[in-house]
Amino acid sequence: MQTSSITRCPWAGDDATMQRYHDREWGVPVHDDRRLFEMLVLEGAQAGLSWDTILRKREGYRRAFDDFDIERIARFDGRRLKRLLRDDGIVKNRLKIHATVRNAKAALAVQREWGSLAAFLWRFVDGRPLQPGRVRRGQLPAQTPQSKAMSAALKAAGFSFVGPTVCYAFMQAVGMVNDHLTSCFRWPQVQRPGRTRAAPRKRR
Known about the structure:
By secondary structure, the chain is mainly α.
């Protein structure tokens, strides 16, 4: 609940849904493959739209895409895709919908090669959440060297709707970077000292 004693990042605004997402999820390190894939899909779906639009459709996405089960999405056929194009619970964009299925197939290939999607993605921050300690909203970048590197690697692996800006928003969301402003009550709460478990070596 918003109170005078709580200072949040400005983007959370006064909307209860946005505040709840900010307070409970944004910036918290995520290592579960299904959850990481969900956020990749949602951040890609946001392209050209506002985040609150996507957040309000989140349950629709979970229902439409089998709770982001990567193996099941990779098996979606033409009939299922046509049904999704009529689904009011998600953004009915043909390119984004088809990209989700292609991205699921790419994610499976990444899992086979790297052991997990998490291992592939977290290497771009060396397995440790970045803690830039930004004071003002104007200091937040749209993209970084790490998000550019992630974008290039994802595209090379067959993913789409994963440009550097999308990747940086994804990194913020899943806690690869703690971009809560230092004045925000969540800034110290989402800090995670030390490294995460080392990623497995790339298989050859």
